[in-house]
Amino acid sequence: MDEIKDKGIHHTAIKICEDLQPSPAYVGLYKEIQKLVSSQHVKYDDFKDSLTKAIKDNGIECQLRNNIYHWVRVKNTESVTGHVFFKKAQVHWDKRIHKSLNSMCNELGIDLAKLRSTAERNDLMEKWSEMSNYDVDVSKYRPVYAPKDFLEVLLNLKDPSFVHKDGEPEWEFSFLPLEVKDLEDLRALYTEFSRGEQILGTGLVGSQAALEEERIILGEKVLTKNYAPVAQEYLKRGCPRSLRAKMWSLVLGVGGKYTQQEYFHNLKNHVLQYDLMIDKLVIKDIQLTASNDDQYFVFEDVLYQIMLCFSRDGTIIKNLKNQPGYMQVILKGKQPTAENTITFPPSGVIPFHGFTIFLFEVTVSLNSKSIDNIAEAVSFPLFLFALTWTRRSTSAVVIRIIIQIYKKAKANFIKKWYSGHRDSRIGNGGTVTQCHQ
Amino acid sequence: MKVTFCTDLDKSVVVANCEKRGWVQVGPEDDWLIAKKEDGYKSLFSVDSGYRMNDNQIINHFPNHYEISRKDLLVKNIKRYRRDLEKEVTFVLPADYNMFVEEYRKAPQSTWIMKPCGRSQGSGIFLINKLSKLKRWSRESKNPFQPQLSKESYVISRYIENPLLIGGKKFDLRLYVLVTSFRPLKAYQFKHGFCRFCTVKYDSSVAELDNMYVHLTNVSVQKHGSEYNALHGGKMSVQNLRLYLESTRGKAVTETLFDQISWLITHSLKAVAPVIATDRHCFECYGYDIIIDNKLKPWLIEVNASPSLTSTTANDRILKHKLLDNILSIIIPPCGYPDVRWNKIPSREAMRDFDLLIDEDLIHLQEEMETGDKYTVKQTMYRWNRYALFNCCRISCLPNKLKPNLAERCVLEL
What we know:
- The complex is a heterodimer of chains A (437) and B (414).
- Chain A is mainly alpha-helical and 437 residues long.
- In chain A, 59% of the residues lie in helices and 3% in strands.
- The longest helix of chain A has 25 residues, at 84-108.
- The relative contact order of chain A is 0.12.
- In chain B, helix 1 (12-20) links the parallel strand 1 and strand 2.
- In chain B, the strands form 3 sheets. In chain B, strands 9, 10, 11, 12, 13, 14 and 15 form a 7-stranded antiparallel beta sheet that branches.
- In chain B, helix 1 crosses helix 11, helix 10 packs across helix 16 (402-413) and helix 14 packs across helix 16 (402-413).
């Protein structure tokens, strides 16, 4: 038995190593260990033990653990089977959106994707840090959809297998069967929700300032540990504003590392190289929302940079549980070969009206001065996850944020949202008995 | 008895706030009780006018508020306030020209800003980085270095070349301070305020020296720029600034910055208190312009005795309406009727969105109560600081050990 277990661990270790090697963090880690080996801490005659000790002492063990933590997180998102009904609804929605994208292109006589000319590229590059001055006429463009359109679609989802039982109240917009029979099952299914932990700062007696101070002290301790899972646990109960940037970066495994800067520059180059129709939608959205808002206008230029790069980030579509629909678009005037075909949109996300506003927390929390921090912000969807936990809010607000994520990533979170929604209903009392029936 | 008010400023925020309280508007010739005047007040205070205010009349200006609101006089008063000044960065031209040149030669690379003393809204301001440019300016203006002949004097101060930038743009802070008395000093700071942003990215290079859209934050300048957006007017609330700073720089330094700003204001008022002709009929609301540099140190730019009540945006209107409402709430005694014999100590509730900055009456009261004080410090200055610290509720929530340090630092840095 032990032997099998040992083998299992061995296999997992090999698998992790294989997966880590191509990852961008690997190079840095490898270099640091090499440096360590050549230092005097590691002895030739006691190589293994002294190296293990040195790794521990120099905080590399923590880095390694964090890498595995991020590896596990990505792995988890891969193995989820979707409900057929939802998959269908999602495909239907994607088609609808793509259709309206195409018809807008036809109407305006533009292309989904083309190469930028050298002059255009230079112009964009010059105004990159001051995109509010970038002259492009987007007056004819309109947002593909508004959150309210999407909500409408959600509310009208009707699962054919849903049966309305007598005596059950009309829930107005929930026509989906619950996955569980009773409250116990529900708790088991959503252990994260049922822990009964209150988010700090809601309905608490005592001084808010004292609470925050206490929380900051604890948070700083967590940060010195530099261990992502601990930071995640900390975030679940609420994080003071002043520590959010650091906490989020730790949990998400982002930071101003060299490889990430490089990654960011690749995204930027993609923007400079290709003129996608979605860029105009991004610009339009920022112009409609952030530019006119007295809270956001200051961050306008940064928002352009983040949003444009975000739109090119292919890892987003890769890491979403249920693949959202995307198009394969051939560049204008090019042969239909593989290198002339790009995924459209590259990130799989088509911005809706008001999409930019969700970035606010990110721009406010991260110092937008340096480019590497903008690179940090590129892993935006992951930030939104963090947000759901950091907002000190009632469950209603959490649900609202979940809906927002949902809208953004289209049908990916449909299951969770509906169940989450019911969960809160049950939490409100009243309907608890319904579940037992 | 009915409360009547008289104003020569036809602004909806003023009239609406007064009428909300059931006050009646009257002309200057009638019997008024509360006056809000911008131009007419000077003649009112002059001896020849023969006008004497009675005990139930109050007015929104001090007779010689220009001691603080005129740029040269503020400089003079602050200088007098800190005689042990080691480094001078502001001069009045043409009077201090020679001193300026001496200072300029110490750091010939730096940029200086010239502001006409008596003007406002950014008019007549320019930057110089070469002495020759100043000389040319003086040749061009008529009688530059003969003070008795020159029409307009200027202050010249070292330009803050490292302002804190947000989104790459320069901004300054507009804060409101209500003074109900100078001797004893009674001052209140309004919780709300806003940052005024430039519309063009900050650039300290010489080429942009003449581009006022880069350097001057005044709305009256910025609104002529092509990038001006009338919906937000380049204004962001101070609360949002605080959130931003807390997130990016940390909570402790943000708190320190805002405490330092409160200190800066208190010190500037303390500096002019001896020369203001105090009058129990008067109260005044000042608009403070403050620039924060990238080391999070606040710099007082200037003080306006008649801050603009024009609303450029919807949020602006809400803020200014509230400002007026809260001012009236503080200046009117609990009986609801103006009375100069009142001790001018409003209740906590009446202060609404104002924070007490300093009330020397309260300090003395507390002093009398604390007999056998074990902390007694000889210097009056220091004692005043210490008491102000304990009286300002906003500061007293800091951990105890921080307080004395804070006081000392503020004194030194002003």
